[in-house]
Automatic annotation (TrEMBL), chain A:
Membrane topology: Single-pass membrane protein
Transmembrane segments annotated in the record for this chain: 142-164
Protein name (Swiss-Prot/TrEMBL): Peroxisomal membrane protein PEX14
Domain Peroxisomal membrane protein PEX14-like KPWE span(s) in chain numbering: 330-352
Chain ranges of the Peroxisomal membrane protein PEX14 central plants domain: 140-257
Polar residues compositional bias, start-end: 1-10, 101-116, 359-396, 456-474
Organism: Musa acuminata subsp. malaccensis (Wild banana)
From TrEMBL, chain B:
Domain EIPR1-like beta-propeller: 158-266
PANTHER family given in the database record: PEROXISOMAL TARGETING SIGNAL 2 RECEPTOR
UniProt cross-references to Gene3D superfamilies, sorted A to Z: YVTN repeat-like/Quinoprotein amine dehydrogenase
Protein's name in the database: Peroxin-7
Protein localization: Cytoplasm, Cytosol; Peroxisome matrix
Protein species of origin: Musa acuminata subsp. malaccensis
Length: 513, 318
């Protein structure tokens, strides 16, 4: 128990000493600290004396030497001092007692200086006279209880200080901070709330604008795509047209060679060729020529190419026609489709391979009918009107009936009279090509000759004519038919022109057949 | 006003000189590019309450029909110019199995126009893209005469209403030629336009007056005695003028149809020449005719496969 207390006291003392060391450093006011500081290194007598006192304590004497030594070391004694103390221990403690009041005072001071609080030091200093009055034995105990008490106080004080320092202050600080933070938070919240609303609005606006931008962008993309598609389609159309042109050009060139050969052989025709520039593709087989002719009028952008093509090309295609309108008349869609189909080589649907059977029964009576009915035509027109036309008839006379007009003599009834009058000749009853005087007649002699032809000569010549013509056609015609025909060649007396025409016709018919 | 829907694209229309309400319509499949053709004989229904057009007969051809005309000598006969170069004679009074009555095949290229001699009434002319015109008569299977002077396709031929042997032809070589059948060569050459001439027609009242219609969108009226400059230059169409017809009833009135889908009526002697414009067609208007028997009755057809018959001054679509 005593050991324990001693130990605890020694421990406490150690603690105090430790604290005292610190305090010593801090409190420069205490006069005792200075000299201790200075005298630390050399052998300090006070220390030795204290150590002797300590060692002379009966309890200490009972403890092992090691403990004594460690205690003294812990006290801060140097080894020499400790040795000195151990040497002196067997020495009489009186010298120690003499120096006791000072040493105890100093020890107490020492010990008291270990306290953090000067109050304790005061208390201790007050207690020291009381402590010095007592006996040595009682002093030590008193010291130790005093020390214990002081230490306890100090400890409690330290503890509280520490506690205070470590826990309560931070808590206070935290609390203060919290309060401040709350205030800040409040402020922040207020600001942030308004901020949030604004931010939300802004965000919404931004989102909307972003969406709009995206929509615009996507629409532009679509438009661009559409345009691209249009361009692409236009481009492909142009390409198709180009291909079509090329094909037709090839065809035309081939045909041109053929026709040129033919034409060069045929002299009679060449005489009548008035302008060579137009010579060309008369035999273009392909209907696209029609299309091109017809559509070159339209001046479609694609046809422009062929129209403005090189003049040495097939004139049927590359006619030097600068089309008047720079605008293309809108073709029906299906029209272009059909053309394209044909260019591709496909036939448009629904075409019947219709072969028209030629009725070989010659309705020769037609010719006679025309003669016979010539007189009675008028009667047919109005009287044989099997179609009642109530809604549409205005009852006006046909134009060739009107008597108020110059050409009233064209009436069929008076027609014969007209002819007779003009002819001035009693010609046969047949209505042949013996005509009245035309306004512009290049060869009046021919007209006279025609009028003055005798029937016999006419017949003969007509027979000749029919024979020649018939031979070329492989037919036999009867004279009656020939009589009723309207052949200018019948009057061949003027010769040259008509024979030429005859020849031409024969040639032509031969060529065609 | 009655409308008739044809299965194929219309190409020409003609009033019958015998019957007031009878029409002939030439049509071609696939706009005439390739395919069959059909010739319709139509009748205008008389009932005033419900005007309509009915089909009397229809004749199919192996190739498209570009033009047609009635015979002036027989009330049921008609001639068609077929795209395969042949001319077919049809008799509307006969069943389709007996038709065509004749087939005249001499042209080496498409036959584009036919016209029947209104004075002599026994012959007809054909114009073809082989640069030639041919004169035919009913009882001769071969042509009587070939007129080859043009250097390009002959688009149109028209007999003079006044003189039995005179006719005019319009060609793609930009000239109009006046011929006399009795002459070996053409009587007159008029370089009428700077572009292809698609149609020509004589004035029914003025024997020296000839009108031409061209790709240059104008119609020019000429006096054949003085051909340096036209009597009138009628502009107003948006595109090439396809066909013109002088009115059989009014001296200076002519009708025209164009690729601008309109049918226009002009008075070339008037200050403001355009009298009327009908834009009832929704495609190229290519065929027109004015009735001889009924004053003011107009018929038109086009690539929109309809035939309209209406009275001048009224709305064809009404």
């Amino acid at each position: 128990m005593a050991n324990d207390s001693q130990n605890s006291a020694s421990e406490m003392a150690k603690i105090v000493d430790d604290g005292g060391h610190e305090v010593k450093g801090e409190t420069a006011d205490e006069p005792s600290s200075k000299p201790i500081h200075v005298i630390r290194e050399p052998v300090r007598d006070e220390q030795v004396l204290n150590a002797v006192k300590f060692l002379s304590h009966p309890k200490v004497r009972g403890s092992p030497v090691i403990y004594r030594r460690s205690f003294l070391e812990k006290k801060g004694l140097t080894k020499e001092e400790i040795d000195e103390a151990f040497r002196r221990v067997p020495d009489p403690p009186s010298s120690v007692a003499a120096v006791e009041p000072t040493t105890t005072n100093q020890a107490v001071q020492e010990k008291s200086s270990g306290t953090l609080q000067p109050q304790v030091a005061n208390q201790v200093s007050q207690q020291t006279p009381f402590a010095s009055a007592t006996t040595s034995l009682r002093q030590s105990r008193f010291h130790w209880s005093m020390a214990l008490f002081v230490v306890g106080l100090a400890a409690s004080g330290a503890g509280t200080a520490v506690l205070f320092k470590k826990k309560i202050v931070p808590k206070l600080k935290a609390w203060i901070r919290k309060v401040v933070a709350e205030e800040n938070d409040l402020k922040f919240n207020k600001i942030s709330k308004s901020n949030i609303a604004e931010e939300a609005a802004e965000a919404a606006k931004a989102a909307a604008s972003a969406a709009a931008a995206v929509a615009i962008a996507s629409q532009e993309l679509l438009n661009a795509k559409n345009e691209e598609r249009k361009y692409f389609e236009a481009f492909t159309r142009m390409l198709d047209v180009q291909v079509e042109e090329m094909k037709s050009m090839g065809n035309a060139i081939r045909k041109l060679e053929i026709t040129r050969r033919e034409f060069s052989e045929d002299k009679g025709i060449q005489e009548y060729m008035q302008s060579q520039s137009w010579k060309g593709t008369t035999n273009n087989p392909w209907r696209t020529n029609q299309v091109k002719q017809a559509t070159s009028n339209f001046n479609s952008g694609s046809k422009h190419l062929e129209v403005n093509g090189s003049p040495d090309m097939d004139s049927g295609i590359a006619k030097p026609l600068t089309t008047p309108a720079s605008v293309e008349p809108p073709h029906p869609k299906s029209y272009m489709e059909i053309i394209e189909m044909i260019q591709r080589g496909e036939k448009p649907p629904n075409i019947k391979p219709w072969e028209v059977t030629q009725q070989a029964e010659q309705r020769l009576s037609y010719g006679r009918h025309s003669q016979a009915n010539g007189q009675g035509l008028n009667s047919e027109v109005r009287e044989t009107n099997s179609q009642p036309n109530g809604s549409h008839s205005n009852g006006s006379e046909p134009w060739w009936r009107k008597k108020t007009i110059k050409i009233s003599e064209v009436e069929p009834e008076s027609e014969e009279q007209f002819y007779d009058a003009m002819r001035g000749n009693a010609s046969p009853m047949k209505r042949g090509w013996v005509p009245p005087q035309p306004p512009t007649l290049l060869l009046p002699e021919a007209a006279d000759a025609i009028r003055q032809l005798k029937p016999s000569i006419q017949k003969q010549q007509s027979v000749d004519e029919t024979l020649t013509v018939g031979s070329s056609n492989g037919e036999d015609l009867d004279a009656k038919a020939s009589d009723s025909t309207i052949e200018p060649e019948m009057s061949g007396s003027t010769g040259m022109d008509f024979s030429q025409a005859k020849d031409q016709e024969r040639e032509v018919s031969v060529e065609i057949n | 006003m009655p409308v008739f829907k044809t299965p194929f694209s219309g190409y020409a229309v003609r009033f019958s000189p015998f019957y007031e309400g009878r029409l002939l319509v030439a049509t071609s499949q696939n706009f005439g590019i390739l395919g069959n053709g059909r010739l319709h004989v139509l009748d205008l229904l008389p009932s005033p309450g419900a005007p309509g057009i009915s089909e009397v007969a229809a004749f199919d051809t192996a190739d498209g029909v570009y033009d047609c005309c009635w015979s002036e000598s027989h009330d049921s006969l008609a001639v068609s110019a077929v795209a395969d170069g042949s001319l077919k004679l049809w008799d509307a009074s006969l069943p389709p199995s007996a038709n065509p009555v004749r087939s005249f095949r001499e042209h080496s290229r498409e036959a584009h126009s036919v016209d029947w001699n209104p004075v002599r009434r026994d012959s007809f002319l054909s114009a073809s893209w082989d640069d030639s015109l041919k004169l035919w008569t009913l009882d001769r299977p071969a042509s009587l005469r070939t007129f080859r002077e043009h250097s390009y396709c002959v688009y149109s031929v028209s007999w003079s209403p006044r003189h039995a042997d005179v006719f005019a032809s319009a060609s793609g070589d930009r000239t109009v030629r006046v011929w006399d059948v009795r002459e070996p060569v053409s009587t007159l050459v008029i370089p009428a336009h700077d572009h292809e001439i698609l149609s020509c027609d004589w004035n029914k009242y003025d024997e020296c007056c000839l009108a031409t219609a061209s790709v240059d969108k104008t119609i020019r009226v000429w006096d054949i005695r003085a051909t340096r400059a036209p009597l009138a230059n009628l502009a107003g169409h948006g595109y090439a003028v396809r066909r013109i017809r002088f009115s059989p009833h009014r001296e200076s009135v002519l009708l025209s149809c164009s690729y601008d889908m309109t049918v226009c009526m002009w008075d070339y002697r008037a200050e403001d020449a355009l009298i009327a414009r009908y834009d009832h067609h929704t495609e190229f208007a290519v065929g027109i005719d004015m009735s001889v028997l009924v004053e003011g009755l107009i018929a038109s057809t086009g690539w929109d496969e309809v035939v309209y018959v209406w009275q001048h001054g009224t709305d064809p679509r009404a």
